[in-house]
Design a protein that fits this description.
Number of domains of chain A: 2
Radius of gyration of chain A: 20 Å
CATH topology of the largest domain in chain A: Fumarate Reductase Iron-sulfur Protein, Chain B, domain 2
Largest sheet of chain A: 5 strands, mixed
Structural class of chain A: alpha+beta
Order of helices and strands of chain A: EEHEEEEEHHHHHHHHHH
Bound molecules: flavin-adenine dinucleotide, iron/sulfur cluster, FE2/S2 (inorganic) cluster
Oligomer: heterodimer
CATH superfamily of one domain in chain B: Succinate dehydrogenase/fumarate reductase flavoprotein, catalytic domain
Number of helices of chain B: 18
Number of helices of chain A: 11
Strand order of the largest sheet of chain A: 2-1-5-3-4
Number of strands of chain B: 19
CATH architecture of one domain in chain B: Alpha-Beta Complex
Shape of chain B: globular
CATH topology of one domain in chain B: Flavocytochrome C3, Chain A, domain 1
Largest sheet of chain B: 5 strands, parallel
Helix content of chain B: 25-40%
Largest interface: A-B, 81 and 82 residues
Strand content of chain A: 5-15%
Strand order of the largest sheet of chain B: 5-2-1-9-17
Shape of chain A: elongated
């Protein structure tokens, strides 16, 4: 396959960036998208130019290191996968592909397609854990947990912290990411103990770090590579207003369909 | 020999650890606050150790290459983690897990360490559940288990196909809690390029800030390397792209001994190579062998038809299929250990029965399981793996069997450590995949996660206290000393040298060459000739690298090419030591298969009389041959036997 690529180049956080155009040739449709960028980079290096910086590590959709807005979609046009799992057979010979970094005020660009996502670590440091020390815990089977709860907890725990949700959101909200962690822990008896405190602390940190408010556009859910659901079933309006007052997200109180709140609020039960 | 003291406590194997724990020293809370510990790596080993040491009150600094500690390579582990809980009432026990691990490792691991590993395995599961790890459960609400290769019991705990992710998120959460408390300081996007030794003790590191390129000095009273394995020496492997052997290699050059470097695990079930543009290989979890059956056609004409795409695998009749693992190993069938399964696949493909165009693939088929259990059950068990397979290959594994082939996956070899997990450099510890101690010549599935967490949560926090109890009088480490200066200077010179070459080959071009040599000559089957040739070839490629590599850009910026170049420079030396080690071991054991040493049935032929030792290498300088030390392996609790998975 032969392709034209329009790629965002930016020297560092302080510099202005711009798109540059590149051509790649003889790309196998079985290659992954990142392998295609490897080939471009090798060509650039050989012709004395600077290769394009992009983040990646596991290349199998689990570490959350890769990012990229491809033709306007976080993680590219295919659904429920990360950029590193995208394969060239999803494109046509002769296509022009536009590649940009995550665009979000909370994720400043480091270089080219690489952004700083440390804000997500900070949100989790604010409370995304169960406060137990190593050792001295009960036997693993001491507390039976309904299979359905464990499964739902696992659904939410599948979040890879990639940042696509905030990068896709027009408000730059990290609510899907926050809700994923909060509801994953809240589904388990171990996590319920600190549930309310955790949700409050994480949401407050999210606000402090400059992420926007959630207005339920659902864009994040559509782009999330792990199909993290933006709503879980049992949620009450009463509790959603509790949370929304915490988040200062006024719009949320009005919604009859508590989306993210559904999951966040679950801990109040 | 005097240099190698394994410090294994005396007494019966089952009592060693409790006895040792009661005898070693502890540090008072007031003194812990005055002690600094550096941890390199945030995989299961590093994250669990950093969190636990932070909880104990030490001042911890933790470093990783990725932008967040959560992204360490451990995140990719799929299948599960072993523990001797015996929740299934299938007569599992600490002894049985210990026995299976020693046997699976082909009797080349240190007995006392393995016993301790089995002993603390149960604590790990308790710990993870308390942290909120959503392990799979039965309808009754209790934990579910599955089976892994090399075991006849169900002792593997799992969280769908994302066990490593969930365990790491547990450890990372514990780490986050300490970061918030201020007991741990995290340095993501930092790469350690050297260990600093002062008066014979590890006292700090030289780091490169990967965002700015700045070279930094960090001092501490002890340094822990939890840097993972070096499988990427083969270029193509299932390891994450940034996995590397550099800290291990730099430690080796500073006096830490390297043990069994040639013990590499080739995993039988990976997605086959698609072409020359490939950058890495994807594992299909071993757990799939619980329900998947491995086969190739019996008839060559079916093979031809498959390669020509005139026949689909599902069209090949049951009686024309050779389920070769079930045929050769009736007792374990598809669940033989990895080394055995990998060699059996290679044997069939070498005999001309490979099922794709390259001739390097066999089938992993779920037809029988889907008929027996229904698609929904299979989907619940392996849904994400099936999805991953389909995205990569464009084939639906619910309809047609998966194609798989062996690939480099794990390195059992690593930095030599004593019973306390300390290297031959006082104050330098190695934990997780970076050390050599627990898996002998072959690691059993679901045991690496167990080892990483055992080391980090339950072993190191005790043993490091013993060492640090002697350091309470040492002041904060001053990094303005000649030792730090010299180490920093050497690192900067290495970097400058790489930029100055301005040659005609990219780092990846040269890495691929090294990978080919390693795979063809130091891979699944090795011979005296291939290994001798490999040594010459690797030396040649190394020269080429230092004369002809091209590293664009400069140091004081975000520059991924210099990162890769520094790692490759180390792989180019480590690869040679691997070949040397393989050449010296005139036997076959576990993942190390020397074609000259096999039984008439093609099984690995061990030589216990001459090779029941750990090969431990000491660096003697760039132009000198390394010295081989031997740690004799004595088995007191286990009777050494030929491995048998047939009956
Ligand atoms: C695809 C796959 C699936 C697997 N599945 C299983 C399984 O189901 N069960 C099982 O038991 N095992 C499994 N394994 C093996 C297991 O995942 C690893 O052996 C284990 O996770 C290693 O953990 P670790 O903590 O030792 O190192 P890693 O997780 O590799 O972490 C290494 C850390 O060191 C850091 N680091 C490295 N070099 C430097 C440096 N120079 N400077 C700073 N930081 C550095 C890295 O950034 C990283 O944080 C699997 C492995 C793979 C590849
Ligand atoms: S919720 Fe989805 S999009 Fe957001 S960080 Fe997690 S995996 Fe990525
Ligand atoms: S590189 Fe790990 S998720 Fe894409």
């Amino acid at each position: 396959m032969n392709l034209t690529l329009k790629i965002w180049r930016q020297k560092d956080a302080k510099s202005q960036g711009k798109f540059e155009e590149y051509k790649v040739q003889n790309i196998s449709p079985d290659s992954s998208f990142l392998e295609m960028l490897d080939i471009l980079n090798n060509d650039l290096i050989m012709s004395g130019k600077e290769p394009i910086a992009f983040d990646h590590d596991c290349r199998e959709g689990i570490c959350g290191m890769c990012s990229l807005h491809i033709n306007g979609h976080a993680h590219g046009p295919d659904s429920e996968i990360t950029t590193c799992q995208l394969h060239m057979r999803k494109f046509k010979d002769g296509d022009t592909i536009t590649i940009e970094p995550w665009r979000s005020a909370a994720f400043p660009v480091i270089k080219d397609l690489v952004v700083d996502r440390s804000a997500y670590d900070k949100i989790l440091q604010a409370g995304g854990f169960i406060s137990v020390n190593t050792g001295g815990v009960p036997d693993a089977n001491a507390i039976p947990i309904p299979k359905a709860d464990a499964d739902e907890s696992m659904d939410a725990a599948a979040c890879i912290g990639c940042g696509a949700c905030a990068a896709t959101c027009k408000n730059g909200s990290a609510m899907l990411f926050v809700a994923a962690r909060v509801s994953s822990l809240a589904k388990l008896p171990q996590g319920k103990v600190e549930g309310a405190r955790r949700a409050k602390a994480m949401v407050a940190k999210m606000d402090e770090l400059g992420f926007g408010n959630c207005t339920n556009t659902g864009a994040c859910e559509a782009e999330c590579p792990k199909a993290i659901p933006s709503r879980t079933s049992p949620a009450s309006t009463a509790s959603s207003s509790t949370l929304s007052s915490r988040t200062k997200s006024r719009t949320l109180t009005q919604t009859t369909e508590p989306r993210f709140l559904g999951s966040v609020v679950y801990i109040d039960n | 020999m005097a240099k190698l003291d394994s410090k294994v406590p005396a007494g019966p194997v089952a009592e060693k650890w409790s006895k040792h724990k009661s005898e070693i020293k502890v540090v008072s809370p007031a003194n812990k606050r005055k002690l600094d510990v550096i941890i390199i790596g945030t995989g299961l080993g590093g994250a669990s150790a950093a969190a636990s040491l932070g909880e104990l009150g030490y001042n911890v600094k933790v470093f990783c290459i990725s932008d967040s500690p959560r992204r360490a390579h451990s995140i990719a582990a799929q299948g599960g983690i072993n523990a001797a809980k015996n929740y299934q009432n299938d007569n599992d026990s600490v002894y049985r897990l210990f026995y299976d691990t020693i046997k699976g490792g082909d009797y080349r691991a240190r007995e006392a360490n393995v016993y301790r590993l089995a002993e603390v395995s149960n604590l790990i599961i308790d710990q993870c559940v308390a942290q909120g790890v959503p392990f799979a459960r039965e309808y009754g609400g209790l934990l579910d288990n599955r089976s892994f290769g090399g075991a006849q019991v169900s002792r593997t705990f799992y969280a769908r196909g994302q066990t490593g992710q969930q365990l790491l998120l547990g450890a990372y959460a514990a780490l986050n809690r300490q970061i918030a408390k201020g007991s741990v300081k995290s340095f993501p996007r930092h790469e350690i390029l050297d260990i600093v030794i002062v008066d014979g003790k590890a006292r700090g590191v030289i780091a490169r800030n990967l965002v700015t390129g700045e070279i930094e000095r960090h001092g501490a009273h002890a340094v822990v390397m939890a840097t993972g394995g070096y499988g990427n020496v083969f270029f193509l492997s299932t390891n994450a792209m940034n996995s590397n052997g550099s800290v291990a290699w730099q430690a080796y050059k500073k006096g830490a001994f390297f043990a069994n470097p040639c013990f590499t695990q080739i995993h039988p079930t990976c997605i086959p190579v698609h072409g020359t543009q490939q950058s890495k290989l994807t594992l299909m979890s071993e757990s799939l062998r619980n329900d998947g059956r491995i086969w190739v056609p019996k008839k060559k004409e079916d093979v031809e038809a498959l390669r020509a795409h005139t026949k689909k695998p599902s069209q090949i009749a049951e009686e024309d299929r050779d389920y070769y693992l079930e045929r050769r190993y009736p007792a374990f069938g598809n669940l033989v250990p990895r080394d055995v399964a990998s060699r059996a696949a290679k044997e069939r493909c070498d005999a001309g029965f490979g099922v794709n165009e390259t001739g390097l693939a066999v089938f992993l088929d779920f037809k029988t399981a889907i008929e027996r259990l229904g698609k929904d059950v299979i989907k619940a068990r392996y849904g994400n793996l099936f999805q991953m397979y389909e995205k990569i290959t464009d084939t639906d594994p619910y309809k047609e069997p998966m194609m798989i082939y062996p690939a480099v996956h794990y390195t059992m070899g690593g930095i030599w450590v004593d019973y306390n997990l300390m290297t031959t450099i006082p104050g330098l510890y190695a934990i997780g995949e970076a050390n050599f101690s627990d898996h002998g010549a072959n690691r059993l599935g679901a045991s690496a996660l167990m080892q990483g967490l055992a080391d980090g949560y339950f072993v190191l926090p005790y043993t490091i206290g013993d060492y640090l109890s002697h350091e309470i009088q040492s002041p904060k480490v001053d990094t303005n000393t000649p030792e730090f200066e010299a180490a920093e200077k050497a690192v900067k010179e290495r970097i400058e040298k790489l930029f100055s070459i301005k040659g005609n080959q990219s780092v990846d071009d040269i890495h691929k060459k090294l990978g080919h040599v390693m795979w063809d000559m130091v891979g699944m089957a090795r011979t005296k000739e291939s290994l001798e040739k490999a040594i010459v070839e690797i030396q040649k490629i190394r020269k080429e690298f230092w004369a002809d590599v091209r590293v664009p850009g400069k140091n004081d910026e975000f520059n991924q090419e210099i990162e890769k170049a520094l790692r490759l420079a180390d792989f180019l030396e480590l690869g040679e030591l691997m070949a040397r080690d393989a050449l010296g071991r005139n036997e076959s054991c576990g993942g190390h298969f020397r074609e000259e040493y096999q039984t008439p049935e093609g099984e690995a032929q061990r030589d216990d009389e001459n090779y029941a030792y750990v090969a431990v290498w000491e660096y003697n300088g760039a132009d000198a041959e390394p010295t081989l030390h031997k740690e004799e392996l004595k088995f007191e609790a286990i009777k050494v036997a030929q491995r048998n998975y047939k009956d």
